[in-house]
Design brief:
- The chain contains 7 helices and no strands.
- The protein folds into 2 domains: about 70 residues, Rna Polymerase Sigma Factor, Chain: A; about 70 residues, Winged helix-like DNA-binding domain superfamily/Winged helix DNA-binding domain (Arc Repressor Mutant, subunit A).
- The chain has about 170 residues and is an all-alpha fold.
- Helix 4 crosses helix 7.
């Protein structure tokens, strides 16, 4: 019974990692491959991972694998087109169109940020992680995370405003 609980917990954590990778802009097939590789590495090293840090470990391994893959291919492929608009609620067409337009502008602005800033913003606001969880995940101090998140928000705001004034 204990193994079943551990397997369901691992599946839950891997689903979280998959959703995070998709929100980060990784293609679905690449995200599936990364999660599978991450699960394999977890099974190899599970006895040396602290149970309180499983999610952080899984996300960090998946991101490192993705960055390694991008370096080998010498490109970053991020597609934010489908990320932000979800059709959970039925709204009128005008609101859907306006929301999609705002999200496209935000996606463009996010794609112009440094990858580290983009990662911080997505961890904080899309994944809902606390400063402490992000600092543990990225192995940085909480103050460093707060400072860099502030800078990332300011840079995103500047890019977003510039893009909207150009239209």
């Amino acid at each position: 019974m204990d193994d079943i609980n551990k397997n369901s917990e691992l599946n839950s954590e891997l689903n979280f990692v998959f959703k995070y990778l998709i929100k980060l802009g990784v293609s679905k097939s690449d995200a599936e491959d990364l999660v599978q590789e991450t699960a394999y590495k977890y099974l190899l090293y599970y006895d040396s991972i602290k149970t309180s840090k499983i999610r952080s470990w899984l996300i960090r391994v998946a991101l490192n694998d993705y960055y390694d893959q991008c370096r080998m291919q010498k490109r970053f492929q991020l597609n934010f087109n489908e990320i932000f608009l979800e059709a959970d609620e039925v709204e009128n067409p005008e609101n859907i169109f306006l929301e999609k337009e705002r999200n496209e502008g935000l996606s463009i602005a996010l794609s112009r940020l440094k990858p580290y800033f983009k990662e911080l913003l997505l961890l904080k606001y899309q994944s809902g992680l606390s400063y402490e969880e992000i600092s543990t995940l990225l192995d940085k101090s909480v103050n460093s995370i707060k400072t860099n998140l502030f800078r990332a928000r300011k840079k995103l705001e500047k890019i977003y405003k510039e893009a909207n004034y150009e239209r």
